[in-house]
Structure formats: structure tokens, C-alpha cells
Amino acid sequence: MKNFLMLLARNRLALGGLVVMGLVVLLALVTPLLPLADPDVTDTANRFKRPFSEGALLGTDHLGRDLLSRLLWGTRLSLAVGFAAAIIAATLGAAIGIIAGYYGGRTDNIIMRGVDMLMAFPYILLALAIVAALGPGLMNALIAVAAVNIPFFARNIRGITVGIAHKEFVDAARLSGMTDARIILTEVLPNVIPVIVIAMSTTIGWMILETAGLSFLGLGSQPPQADLGSMLGEARSALITNPHTSIVPGAMILIIVMAINLLGDGVRDALDPRLKSGALSRPMPATMVQRAGPVPTSEGDTLLALRGLKTQFHVEDRVYKAVGGVDLQVNPGECLGVIGESGSGKSVTALSIMGLVASPPGVITGGAVHYKGEDLIGAPYEKLRSLRGDRIAYIFQDPLATLHPLYTVGDQLIEAVRAHHLFDRKKARAHAIELLTSVRIPNAEQRVDSYPHEMSGGMRQRVGIAMALANDPEVIIADEPTTALDVTVQAQILSLLDDLRRERGLAIIFITHDFGVVAQLCDRVAVMYAGRIVEEGPTKTILDAPAHPYTARLMACVPELGQGRRELAAIPGLPPVVDRLPEGCAFADRCHKAGDTCRQGNIELVRHGAESLVRCVAPETPPQEAC
Amino acid sequence: MTGYILKRLVSAIPVLFGISIIVFVIMAMIPGDPATAILGSYATPDNVEKLNRDLGLDKPMVQRYFIWLGNMLQGDFGRSFSLNRAVLDEVLDRFGATLVLAGTAFVLCSLLGVAAGVVSAARQYGLADKAITFAVLLGISIPSFFLGMMMILIFAVKLRWFPVSGMWPIYGARDLSALISHLTLPALALAVVATGVIARLSRSAMLEVLRQDFIRTARAKGVHERSVVWRHALRAAMVSIIPVLGVQAGFVLSGAVYIEMVFQWPGVGRMLVDAILKRDILLVQGGVVFVAACYVMFNIAVDVAQSLLDPRIKT
Ligand code: SF4
Question: Cis peptide before A473, with omega less than 30 degrees from 0?
Fold first, then answer.
């Protein structure tokens, strides 16, 4: 509760709404005590006095009545009627909803049918019908407005109640012999009341508006009694000659409803946890770049080289160092495996290359990615876009989530081509079919018109690969492309990728947590832990004789290739949380060899044997043995 | 597809029944002798007797309902005593005018609302987003009848860009340009609230979609950001926006009542209010049932549109 109020207070607009609403309510409450003119005394000699004239601060209306006084009394009436309607609708709606949700079954069915029918009306028709039957009048308008809002409450509250009615504490109460009525009052109601209050806070503005509307139509409050709506309705005939008589009550309605809406939004936001975590922010077209320190320059003519890449997630005031300075490189025809547990930063590394890390919260804070000597991290969006999918393409993990669900795979392939080439649709379609054939999809001519949900997981992933191949790229970054697939399909996809690499001279960066895949496909492998590379070298060297204790432990957990689960598991302890990395070796807490030297300073990635690198003060293998 | 449409039409039958029952029950709440209530100042003994006979008002409730329903199904909605005209004829005449007004407003609020929501989401926390968010807040807070009056004051009286009220010029040709100039202000005034609501929901639907994996895929393909937003994200977001449009159509239809009063638009809403004030019960009853039934049909159209848009819905 205290948290909630703090959040509400932090929202300045909501606070403004609260203050304005408080003032209006206060004014309405003290109206009878104020030295105001009688709102109903007519004085035709002084009709249509302008605002700020003597004796009438806001002027007078068509019968010479004091507008300020009428405004305050009208506000009082409108608020009272609006609140009353809200309370009636909430009470009855909640009662109906609780009964339907609590008893369920047929009771629920019948009640909710009725509610649906009521909701099938445009609300005002129902209100008009009720007023027609009961006759015009403020009380009847109130009843009508309350009645048309009951279904809304009933439906909302029912949903919540259904959830509660199946909780253990309700079952326990039932078993202990409590009556239904007592359970509803003591167990269900207290849990539902917050929802009722929220629903009321978001609809009360509506109720005030609706009753004012009915009064405006002449169906609500009847003269001489006036709420804001009927004031406006009466002023309408003098709109052109004396607009102030309309503007005064109209502006008041606007102020009230706006204040309530602001407040309601504030309440809703304060209660929505997603807003707090920033989960509702939209990722920008490319990851934000805020590089501190010097940018590494390119050396040599490597196809793709990552140099000291650092990517962080900034969530509120916490900083998660997902990638803490990674160096990698691939050349044409080469396949580099990047392996690690989930959370090791391997995927973030892969996505950083083309600026695809969701941002916010992702920020690239250092390093460079050199593609043929050119830095991609600082590159302008248009440069990045022209390379994405054209020279450097991605294959993602779960093709059901990563393919657009509402376009055919053909359309998506065509789009991939046309994002970079001026193909007409027909030529692009032919190319799409070719692509599907090249990834060994049978019946490509028919499949091209399928939607992703109509295909099997393996087929979808082939589409994902076809899409990556669409523009004959030089580099493919595959982010766990086979994880979601079963073993046979996995093997097929891997051999497909291997063939493509050999035929087309592709460079592949293969992100995985699976040593079996690495063994099958990769020339070199880099092992990542807590955002950094802990060991890198030729696949065979590392698989045969891992030098880093972490790699060794990982391998020990891996059963024979091709048998059962080949996932990383069963290392005691968890990887460190990357917003609180310990000093020294990040693996120290889980390492059986950890000593004092391991926990101080920065441990460098050093050459170990002929072609390997390792980040450890006490490698498992002596350097000479490693080559 | 035809099968799906048929299925939805069949499922509407119980809803239509329900609507007629609800209206009947509400009308049965009228205190006193029904015939006298319906006839009001026209309640001569002759008329009372005739009405009792025609509507079976002296029979039990259930029987009365079925007589009324049977008559309606044959196109007989009764007679309006204040207008001395068949209810259905009057409703049909007036409904045309309402359809023009509400239809235009609906198209306006759908296009503007979705566009504003998309721009707002695409520029989240940017200047455009803040401006739109503020405009939306203002839009959903201003009573449409007050807005309509202010529009008359500014655009019709002060600037003289548009006529003050009515659907057609009193003298002069009833052509399209005359209609458009009469229609502009009321349609805009009517569209404002719904535009705000639609913009708001479109914004959050877009934000929801923009975080999804397939958007990242589109970006990874090198698709232009414009196309990522307007093609990929909007298409997916439409799946949750369309039902909102259906609901908002009901609000536009409701708001039309106020706007018709403000702008003296000869629509069914103004007819209903006049009928209530004149206690012309049969006219109210017929009008409400007719409009509600049309709204149910409209919602079926929305469902069908939804199924066309989303291939995952089984048709
Ligand atoms: S540096 Fe120390 S703690 Fe870290 S892996 Fe090597 S031996 Fe273990």
C-alpha cells in the first residue's frame, strides 16, 4: 500500500489529477456554506450578464440566475449522482460477478449469458430505454446509468472471483464447514475489493459524463434543479449569442473528467508491474551505443572481428554486464562455435554484432565489431540496415516466435530479398521457391504459400535458414538454431548448414550450449562464462583436453554424443549474477581449484599452447601438452 | 469462409432474442396500464381498446412478448402516435442519417486513432508520443456534446467555414458537397472520444508487438524501420486492435445521440430523445430494438474481418 502511494505520488500527472479532484470535491462539499446567491432565483432584468461583472463573478444565465452559484450547486449534484451511480453499479455488478464466479457451472453460465446480452447493446440505447420506461428525471437517469454499467463490473469481478474460488484457502474454508455466504464475505470479498475500487476509479469519470449527458438531453435533472449537464443543455439555445453560459458548465465537466482520468491512469500504472520493470518499452531500430574509452582499431583483413565488445543492460539504476569485453573472429568458410550456459552472454554477444539487442534496456558500452575492417558499432542506422540480412544474416532459435505469424513464408522470404534488391515480385517469388528447395523443403511451390503455424518445427527452421540465405550473405550468425528441435531433425539441420558452409564459403558463428553440435560443425570454439570468454581454441584441442576448469566441468557433464541429453547441467552452484560480478575469476565460487590468487585483480585471457587461449591461473593442462 | 459467416449468423440468433427480451422487460416496467401509457394524450377509449387488441396488452406477459415478437418479425413495429406513422418507416428514414454520421465518424476514428497509436508507439517517449498522449487525454475527457457546441461556436459562427447545423441546406441542392460541409463538424466531434480510446489501445498493442521476436527477425533481415513498424508490427497489432474497433463502434453509435441533438442532425438518436420526451413508447421500443440488432450484425462483420486478418483463426 505504501509502495503504491509512493508510485502514485511519483506520477506528477496523477498527482495533479488528485489535487484538482480534491479541490472540486472540497468545493462541492462546502458549497452550502459559501456566501453564494441563491442558484434558483431568477432576475430577468439581469440576464446574460458577462463574466466578471459586478455581483456575478461568472455572469448570469438566460433567466438572470447567478452562474457561479449554479455552477457550484450543479457540480455538487453531478458529482453526487456520478458517485452514487458508480457505487450502485459497483455493488450490484460485484454481487452478480461474485455469485457467478463463486458458484460456477450453470449459475455462472446463465448469468454471464445475460451479461453478454446486455453488453451487446450500445450502452446509450439501454439507458434511453430505461429512461423511456421510467420517465425522465434525475433519479431515473441515475438508475439508467448505474444499470448499463453493471455488466462491466459483473464481468470483471467474475473473472477475479473464478481465480479465487479455486484457491486452497477457499477449499479449506469449505472443508471446515463454513457456509457459502460466510466464505464469500470473509474469504472472497476482501480479495476482490481492490479490483472493485480500481474498476470504480476508472469508470467514475464515465458515469459523471453519462449522467451529465442524459441531463443534457433533457432526460435527467428537471428544472429548476440543475446539474452540469442540464445547465449545458439549457444554455445551448443561447450558444451563439451568449457562449459563456455554455462554456462555464462545459469546462467544469471537462476539468472533472480529466482529473479523474489522470488519477485513474495513475492508479492503473502504479498497479501494473510491467511498467515498473520497463518491460513495456519499445526496442529501438538498433541497439543504443554509448562507448566510453578508445575504440579499438581494425587490424588485418579478418572478415568479421569482435574487439573488446561490451554490452550492458541498464534497468532502472542497476547495470547488468551481459558482455564484458569479448574478442572473436571468423573468416570465410570457417565455423566458430560459442558455447556457454544460459545467461553466459553468448546470445547477447551474437545480437550485439548487428545492433539487435533490445534497447532499452541494452546498451553497447565499448569495443568494436569490424566487418572487413569497418566498425559496425558506431555505424549509422542506414549502413547497419543495408548489411543486415544482406552480408550478415541471422538464424534464430524458435522459428515459431521469430517468423511473422500472419504472413506466408513466401511473403517473408520475398521481403528478405526485396529489402536489398530491386526484384519484382514474380522474380522474388521464384527466388523464394528456389531458396526453399535449397534448404531441402519438399513441395516448395506449395509450401511457399503456407503460414508458419502450418509447418512443423523442422520445416520452420529450414525456412529460417532459407531466409538467412536469401541474399547470399558472407556471415551467418546462428543463435541456438537447433535447440527447439528433436534429435533427428537437429542432425539434418546441422548437416544442411555444414553443406552450405562448404558450398558457399560461408562464415558461421554458431551459438549453442551443446558440445555435440560444436563437435559436429565447428572448427574453433569459444567458451563463455559470465559475459567473458574463458577459453578459446581449435575444437579438437578443447574437446580432447580442456584447459579451463569450467570447460572441463562442462564436458564431464556431457554424456556420450548422440545419446540422451547433451546439455550443460549439473555443475554445482549457479553462474554469478552479472550485475554483481566478483573480483577476479567469475567462476571461483564454483571451482574446485579456486585459491586466493583467483579472487584478486583481473585474470587475463592468455595464450595456452599453440592455438588456444585460456583465462585461468591454474589451467587443467600444462601448456605444452595442449597442442 | 461462407461456413464461418453462417455459423456466426446462427450464433447471433440467441443474442437477438435476448435483446428483444431485455427491451420488452424494460418496457414492461412502465407503471400503470400499458395501453394508457403507450397512448399518453392519445388515450381515447377507442384507441385503448384497439391497442389492447392489436398488441394483446390484456393478455399475460409471455403471450404479449410473443405477439410483439411475431409482429416485429413480419416487419410490423407498431405505430407512432406522435408522428402518426409506422414505426419502422420512421426508424429506417432516420437510421440512414445516423449511419452517414456514425459511419463517417467511425472511419475517421479508426484511421486517425490507429495512426496516432502507431506513431506514438514508434516514437515512445519522444515529442510526438507526448503530444499525442496529451491530445488523447484531452480527447477522452471532453464531453462530445460540449466539444460539438464549441466547434459550432468556432468553426461555424466565428470562422464561418461550415454550416451551424442540420444535414442539408434549407435552400439549395442536396448534393455531396453540401452533405460534406454539413457532415464535417458533427462527424469530427463524434469521432474525437473514440479516436482517443483507439489511439491509446493501439499504442499499447503496438508496444506489445514491437518487443516480439519476429520484429527482431524483420530487423535482422534488413527491413526498413518504417516497414517494420507499419507492416510487421501493425499487422500483428491489428489482431488486438480490431475487437477494440468493434467496441468503439458501439460508443460512436451512442455518442451520435448527443451529436445529433447538438447539430440538429435528423438521425435516430434525436428521434429517440424526442420520442421519450413525448412518451411515444412504441417508437422508442422499435428504434432501440432495430439499432441494437444492427449493432449485433456489425459485430459479426468485425469477427469476420478478424478471421480474414488472422489465418490462425479456424474458419
Ligand atoms: S582462475 Fe582459479 S577459480 Fe578461476 S577457473 Fe582457474 S583455478 Fe578456478
Answer: no
